[in-house]
Amino acid sequence: IASEGADSVAEAEGAILESLS
Question: What is the distance between the alpha carbons of residues 1 and 19, in angstroms, rounded to a whole number?
Fold first, then answer.
């Protein structure tokens, strides 16, 4: 369960970084 949340956070962070670049 915790790992699933971490994966979601990592995915969201990746999308944010992509939108910034």
Answer: 28
In this predicted structure, what is the pLDDT of residue 16?
A: 95
Report how far residue 7's alpha carbon sits from residue 1's, in angstroms, rounded to the nearest whole number.
Answer: 10
Q: How far is Cα 21 from Cα 17, in angstroms, rounded to an integer?
A: 6
| The CA-based dihedral angle spanning residues 13, 18, 20, 21, taken in that order and rounded to the nearest 10 degrees | 140
Q: Write the DSSP string, 1-21.
A: -HHHHHHHHHHHHHHHHHHH-
Q: Is the pTM of this model over 0.70?
A: no
